[in-house]
Amino acid sequence: METQKVxxxxxxxxxxxxPVSWEGLPDISLYMDQVISYLPRQLIExxxxxxxxxxxxxxxxxxxxxxxxxxxKYGRTHLAYLTAVCALKQVLSVREMxxxxxxxxxxxxxxxxxxxxxxxxxxxxxxxxxxxGGDEQEDLAPLALELALxxxxxxxxxxxxxxxxxxxxxxxxxxxxxxP
Length: 180
Fold this sequence. Notes:
Blueprint: H1 3-16, E1 30-31, H2 32-38, H3 54-62, E2 73-74, H4 76-88, H5 94-105, H6 109-132, H7 140-164, E3 170-171, E4 176-177
């Protein structure tokens, strides 16, 4: 595909593809294998080898990034947090995600997910706008540099802000987040 078509297709996806609303999340609890097959549909994938695995979900739960499963099932709150984790793991460490999710959710998974979707929508639209400017091969390297440096600056700012947030409350004996 020529450069312009590739950029247009990515810009289209950035403008149109979004995680489902809270109400659109399954209203029945899912088993791990169902969660693993459901989540790739929630975000625009960057690489096939970067997919969520059951070991990753178990680790995020063990580390207190997301609540433990209810038995062996995962509900809407789990899916909402895991959707956010799949996006955030591209730029944040597990510890940083734990801090952000604990401070950003206040124990309300639905409110957090609504805010996550709003911020993601803005970021994707701004990036789509940048992709639609220019269509020559010569524009690729300068645009890639701009996007990389915007990511760098945003990551620095994010890490600084996360350092200002309190450490999440954790039950020392279980590594579970305390219920609010």
